[in-house]
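Exercise 7.
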Amino acid sequence: MKKIEHKIFLKNNSLDKKLLLEPIQDKIEIFDRMYKLLDTVSDCEKGDLLEQLEALDLEILEDIDEEYADKLEFNEIEEALEEQPVLEKVMPKKESPKPTNDEAILDELVKMGRTQDIGRSTFKDLGLISKLGWETVIGKYLVVRTSVFRYRYGITIK
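Solution. The predicted structure, written as tokens, is:
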């Protein structure tokens, strides 16, 4: 996420978020919690979370504009809201077509450098069809389960 628009706006207008209406404060609190999750989610889920954060950021700006537009000194919300169509144009670019076969999925993971401690759910989210055992050969790759009690895998080239 490039910038957090509502925080910049609050700073420019010297507003304390504690002085805002309670529903707006709640949305800002939810935004802050979601933003903290960015470091903990997998790469697959990070794109969705970023989209949700951007949408919530714009929603907070709109709410502030509705309530306080006439009282604010540096009211630049209109500019931020005009940029919203640009975000909609960017969203389709983020949606890259999923690889069609299992080997292509593993190729992508290797290119990204994700070869260790990969969860079974990550493979399922990416569309892996092959059933994973302790040692599974998929094309030129060997997928090895690395944990006994959890479904964690490592990818190596045969």
